[in-house]
User: Which sequence fits this backbone?
């Protein structure tokens, strides 16, 4: 899939971008261009991943002229750049629109200009029936991608635009887990909103596999959603206390603006356009994507009858969470 190809990753210095880069470098990829703004993060990444096939390009997705140059001769675009921290986005909504919505439009337009083979964007559960600006901007990003073919000329454009959508990556930058670990290590109070909250969980390995599988399978217009387990905040706390063989006091804090108790990966309305293949749900509007739909021969209509939310799936046990924390190198082996 990547052999001999030139790949560009927007937001390539982020948690996901680095994980993707390491995996893609294990193939016979020709080049990977990392596209992001902060030079220090690029230097850190260069020190971590040293390979002559890597190119580091400073650029902002808001800057279409720069993006267009960066995309020259590119075959595959993975669009991971985003402003993603809910409180920051709530406080700076205009900025989130510029990066997550207008930046994504720039990515799409440049992909069309360059006629890349495939462009995939990375969505989130927060985009489903969004309650906050981050979710709303990511919802628009997804929509822009899966309807991008409306701007194509079938005789001239070959680009397949697809999206993936998933929940919390435990190991990602500034997520709740590193924060809890720091609080426990420092003997500080654990700041928790509500222990009954639930979150979908996906490991970085599952996230990169989802993206690779979607690139392989996608025909354009699909949103790929993995079948995931979720966890209760209470179980996460218990797992961390067990790993660190200690406990700290709990400090209740207010639910943050725009925070949901349970996340949703597929809304009730989307169920009528939802199909299943092995480990994934595929959301595809048949009416809008008849050509794409006809290329699939193994899509089964979903058997789900209610929306896919983090409180209505199997929960990870304490032991399973501990195993994930160890495997993701968030904590050292428990023994
Ligand atoms: N982490 C999760 O739990 C999770 C769950 C679902 C979906 N996602 C989605 O997955 C993607 C990657 O997440 P992540 O955890 O890897 O995020 P991250 O660690 O915060 O990385 C974000 C990347 O985007 C770059 N970036 C931000 N604004 C940019 C701009 N205007 N132009 C170019 N690059 C820009 C950042 O570098 P600079 O700051 O140097 O530009 C960084 O490389 C995001 O789209 C996010 O919405 C994440």
Assistant:
């Amino acid at each position: 899939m990547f052999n001999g190809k030139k790949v560009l990753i927007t937001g390539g210095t982020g948690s996901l971008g680095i994980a993707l880069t390491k995996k893609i470098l294990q193939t016979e990829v020709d080049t990977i261009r990392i596209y992001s703004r902060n030079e220090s993060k690029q230097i850190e990444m260069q020190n971590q991943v040293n390979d002559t096939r890597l190119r580091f390009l400073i650029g902002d997705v808001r800057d279409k002229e720069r993006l267009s140059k960066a995309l020259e001769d590119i075959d595959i675009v993975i669009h991971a750049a985003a402003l993603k921290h809910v409180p920051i986005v709530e406080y700076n909504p205009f900025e989130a629109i510029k990066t997550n919505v207008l930046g994504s439009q720039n990515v799409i337009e440049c992909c069309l200009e360059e006629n890349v083979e495939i462009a995939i964007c990375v969505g989130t559960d927060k985009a489903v029936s969004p309650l906050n600006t981050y979710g709303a901007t990511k919802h628009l990003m997804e929509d822009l991608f899966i309807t991008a073919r409306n701007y194509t000329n079938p005789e001239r454009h070959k680009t397949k635009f697809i999206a993936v959508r998933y929940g919390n990556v435990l190991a990602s930058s500034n997520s709740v887990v590193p924060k809890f670990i720091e609080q426990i290590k420092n003997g500080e109070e654990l700041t928790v909103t509500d222990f009954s909250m639930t979150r979908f969980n996906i490991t970085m390995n599952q996230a990169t596999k989802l993206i690779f599988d979607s690139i392989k399978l996608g025909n354009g217009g699909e949103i790929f959603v993995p079948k995931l387990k979720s966890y209760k905040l209470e179980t996460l706390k218990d797992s961390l206390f067990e790993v660190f063989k200690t406990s700290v006091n709990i400090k209740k804090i207010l639910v943050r603006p725009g925070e949901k108790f349970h996340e949703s990966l597929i809304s009730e309305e989307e169920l009528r356009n939802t199909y299943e293949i092995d480990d994934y749900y595929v959301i595809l509007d048949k009416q809008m994507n008849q050509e794409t739909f006809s290329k699939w021969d193994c899509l089964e209509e979903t058997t789900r009858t209610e929306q896919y939310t983090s409180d209505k799936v199997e929960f990870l046990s304490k032991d399973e969470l501990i195993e994930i924390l160890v495997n993701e190198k968030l904590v050292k082996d428990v023994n």
